[in-house]
Amino acid sequence: NDIYANEWSQLQNYFMPQMKLIRKTRIGSKYKREYSKPMTPYDRIMAEPTISSEVKARLKRQYDNLNPFALKEALDRKVNRFFKLVNFKPIRNAS
Q1: N or C: which end of the chain has fewer CB within 10 A?
Q2: pTM score, two decimals?
């Protein structure tokens, strides 16, 4: 939960561009899909005119304080620590 709530979500929302499905049209037995240009969720919010300027300013301050390389490094450390815990096998008493 900690990994997702902090490093993962910040990397995904601020630095990982994603394509969104705009339209799906059926042509015979196949579908033609049209996607938007890749943008981060942060960029989509900043481009949306209906979002208030207070929300945009708060997100901009948060974005300015983020370092994607430090986030990735912290994410890798936490994931490695998690997998070490999962692979940990306690020694059983021979009885």
Answers
A1: C
A2: 0.73
